[in-house]
Design a protein that fits this description.
The structure is a homodimer. Chain A is α/β, with parallel strands linked by helices and about 260 residues long. Chain A has 10 helices and 8 strands.
């Protein structure tokens, strides 16, 4: 069994499902998206989508409206294909504790999503997620999924791990496995049992080899569609993980256990 | 035909050649290495190699001796297997112009290497490679291969491109395709005909798709062994490049033309 534990909504949905079938992916943990680069047929169209993303991130296009539209798109797909998709719900950062509670109640719990993310923010903004940790710590059912590639720095990742240490009942998924800081991060999370290591966007097989040796029960397979390719990610696991029991953990069992699915 | 345009010496050499044969790689452009993580069988042994690397980079183990030992290791392998390997020679940065000329004469031209690199340095040090550009500009036969992932920043990569613009007859290979800054870098080098885009360590198929659309004659396939896997890199090309003529350029013809091999 293979579960893709992190991909974004790609359109049309049929294309996503066909790809899952072709690649032997049984289920996908689906995240909302503000743009659809997968619909671009060439550089010019890709650039239009990426420029739109920049406009939303800079507030030139209303970000809240865009986020809610994206959440509704995700909600509908998960509702239409409950056997194929499980949703994670977006949550803004920097809100008050009450606002964070309300948002999670309305847009995560209210939509029957199983976790929260993707949290993507700029350098030096980790302190803005404190209230999400506080809110979720009273309800440890909802793992938090963080983008830990650029623009996050080594310092940001360290700060995030301080929060993970402070809230040991909150599950933290390090999306994209801390990028260039994978080795020192792995060494730090060996004893942080609430922190998981997502392998999407990995740029060396060494990170996955060593993660699967140090924390085999906390490594999660994912593709990060549309930015990654299922075939490539499966190949990376095949080349990096030789123990078949560990491979089963990474490809499906770890996320099944975590989300109780 | 497939040419791996960037991998490091891995030991034993027979293992490298067996892997090339198995994966259908006809030739490898080989770079020296200070450490041999491929000989590690687990995390502890890997950590010993990486700690040794840190000691060399911080000068706790004599870096010049280590570099010359690594160059000699490379030279011997290229001499023993001239059909399989072509060497690129290491060159220190921050030397005077005369010292740089001497080094290139002795350790690059003297060893019949075909290019210079890998240049790997910290943030804010691009100005230290000026003399390498000056030295090579009088002899444009020697492409320069730069590591452009972390710790290089967006600003460093921009500075490197300023040098590439100033010395249009010097071939610059952006190793690892500028990492997180791949899109803006590709847009900037479309009209910089002396700048090439290396695909090793890529973390999204989008970068290779768009590079192969914008600058098909300047995209170079490489594995970056021991950090990358030939099977994974071939799969990335298969998934990203659908045009078979462009695929041939990327997998072999671009580097053949560049090095006249």
């Amino acid at each position: 069994m293979i579960i893709d534990s992190h991909s974004h909504v790609i359109l049309p949905v049929d294309r996503h499902i066909d790809l899952m079938t072709k690649e032997g992916i049984d289920k996908t943990i689906l995240f909302s998206t503000l743009v659809h680069p997968e619909t671009a047929s060439d550089y010019s169209e890709y650039k239009v989508e990426m420029t739109r993303l920049q406009k939303i991130l800079r507030g030139k296009i209303n970000p809240t409206d865009s986020r809610i539209k994206a959440i509704n798109e995700l909600k509908q797909i998960v509702k239409n294909y409950p056997d194929k998709f499980i949703g994670f719900g977006f949550c803004p950062i920097g809100l008050s504790l009450a606002q964070t509670d309300n948002w999670i109640n309305e847009y995560v719990i209210g939509n029957s999503f199983k976790g929260i993310g993707e949290f993507t923010f700029g350098e030096g903004q980790v302190s803005k997620v404190k209230n999400v940790f506080k809110s979720v710590s009273s309800n440890d059912k909802y793992p938090l999924w963080f983008h830990t590639l650029y623009p996050l720095t080594k310092k940001d990742i360290k700060e995030l791990l301080v929060l993970a240490k402070k809230y040991p009942n909150v599950i933290v998924i390090l999306g994209h496995g801390a990028g260039s800081f994978w080795l020192e991060t792995l060494e730090e999370i060996v004893n942080l049992k609430n922190v998981y290591f997502d392998i999407s966007a990995s740029f060396t097989t060494h990170s996955i080899k060593i993660a699967s040796e140090l924390i085999p029960e906390r490594v999660l397979f994912s593709v990060d569609m549309p930015y990654g390719s299922p075939g490539v990610m499966k190949k990376i696991v095949d080349e990096s993980v030789k123990d078949s029991a560990v491979k089963e953990l990474i490809l499906a069992n770890n996320i099944k256990r975590l989300l109780e699915i």
